[in-house]
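May I ask for a sample protein chain and its fold as tokens?
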Amino acid sequence: MNTIHWTDADDERRTARWYTQNATPPPKRVITAGARISVAAAYRHVSEGTALLWQGDYPSARRLLTSLRRKLDGIAQPKSDSLAQAFHLQRREQARRSRVLGMLLIPYADDWAIGLRQAPDVREACVQAYGEWPGGDEPVVGSLRELLGIVGAYEWRRKGVEIPALGAGARIHPHYGVFSPVRGEYVDLVAKAPLPAGADSAFDIGTGTGVLAALLAHRGLRRVVATDLDPRAVACARDNAERLGLPVEVREADLYPAGRAHVVVCNPPWLPARPRTPLDHAVYDPGSRMLHSWLDGLADHLEPGGEGWLIISDLAERLGLRGPTELSDAIDKAGLRVVGRLDTRPRHGRAADRDDPLHEARAAELTTLWRLAPRAT
């Protein structure tokens, strides 16, 4: 358990346990702050790496965080010479924003109640993210920005995300730390792809919320096994399958379960870059490890006449992060052939945002479901 230290107004040395779900290291320098601190002074402190442990009321802390965010928004970003450079600059700026805005800290009391005046009740949201209250007499401190993300994730889980392909009113409920299926393009591709003749079994590799496994079961496949390496995703996929009343078996595994299936689907992280937070693992995959491992193992896990369905965006190629023939070369090297493909254009808002430094690539992005089968020997 990490610990932070600071000196209070009476010059007493204080300590508290540092809680985070984003693998953020505890701040090395902490001072107390309240309503009298100016936005300029607060910004100077957090930019220099000094965290502010808030001692005013909760609404004032929220207002200060908003003001700090606006300060960051007003900083002009450097120009880039290529889309690849723009991508790396954007990620660097996102990391800086996360680090700076994460420096506004709040105290927690018993059972994850916020130890500030006029604070909302966030106890259930915190239990879902952090687990049960750790107990003990030592104070607990966390980032306000992270808490707001936890509360937002709690609302996603409570309300769910409507998935029309699963039937009228059907919803998937993402747990904290599991990527929400808000981009419906890839779900629609799996809903439309023709099933191999006689198919009655499927594997969903890297299932996340379990939405694709649920969809395959909804389409009538009698045996569907979903796997994920993340225990949160495993719990989330099981919860969603039970809510929907669908016969999906969920296992914690790195890629494949034992055996074979008629359909083996995978929607791997699309961008070969280093993840910085647990949630990033749904988007970033260093060296495209999962993509290549899935391709290399596919033939050994397909029933005769079966297909592997790879759902992947070409954004990495458009950004210059993956070579133009790298995917086709990997498919060929794995002893596979393409038997068909379905394409779709993005419908998410960022594709239409002309202020996005990556707009050119996002607007042209194509998401494809590749239907793969072993080469005839």
In short: The first strand starts at residue 3 and ends at 7. The chain has twelve helices and 15 strands. Residues 17 and 140 are 5 Å apart (CA to CA). The chain has a mean pLDDT of 93.
